[in-house]
Amino acid sequence: MRIDLHSHSDASDGTSPPAEVVRRARAAGVDVLALTDHDTTAGHAAAGRAALEAGLRLVPGMEMSCRRDGHSVHLLAYWFDPADEALVRECALIRQARDGRAEAMVGRLAELGVPITMEMVTAVAGGGVVGRPHIARVLAELGAVATPADAFTAEWIGTGGRAHVTRYAPDPARAVALVRAAGGTAVLAHPRRGFLMPDAWIAELAGSGLAGVEADHPDHDAEARAHLRGLAADLGLVVTGSSDDHGNLTGHRLGSETTAEEAYETLRAGRA
């Protein structure tokens, strides 16, 4: 069984509609897929219908944006109640903060001489949750950068960059608690991508109810994967693998990294 527990649609910063993400996953040989858009479950209904047609098992999920000591931390949440009031309220605050940050970043870019508008960004987002990748895509379309990836530098919208703006996001320990209270399970996403999350933070989250850690990720090298596997063993965490596919932005890599069936079943069985 091929299991991919991290993917994105155009409900957030992916480039394909939810149903297309499901169809592409099935075509890639994926049997179980988690749709984990940023801070929203808006794509679940369409993805669920497509999954039934494709004969694929869909895991309802979400990637929650968190922050600690000025660093971005992402938490993958699965099998939670999408109507849980506290979780819904927190995600609404996160999305509002995303919108406010996008407007502030667009303003800074305009001051730097880039002819960008918020209307351009929201058009690219297509009604989905606005994120930095949407701004990056507009910068590439305008010719300010060669590719969207080139926008994530100190010169533009990379962390600490000239046009970067911080925003509200909950501490990851609070996010873990919210997910568990909503009946879900939480896995730490790509903790060695860019910022190297301290082991002490992961240990603290494990003590707060974190269920797993995403070790096998396209942006993790062999050393990072081995380190995270060892840490997970020490802390009693499940190890997952996922593509973190964003459609065109990542080269349609659904199924490129997968989770072992035993790990998947352990996550399912350990829901709060």
From TrEMBL:
Residues 1-21 are annotated as: Disordered. It holds the Pfam family PHP. GO terms for molecular function: 5'-3' DNA exonuclease activity; 5'-3' RNA exonuclease activity. Transmembrane segments: none annotated. SMART domains: POLIIIAc. InterPro entries: PHP_dom, PHP_domain, Pol/His_phosphatase_N, Pol/histidinol_Pase-like. CDD domains: PHP_HisPPase_AMP (cd07438). Residues 3-68 form the Polymerase/histidinol phosphatase N-terminal domain. Residues 1-11 have a biased composition (Basic and acidic residues). This is Polymerase/histidinol phosphatase N-terminal domain-containing protein. It comes from Nonomuraea endophytica. The lineage of its organism: Bacteria, Bacillati, Actinomycetota, Actinomycetes, Streptosporangiales.
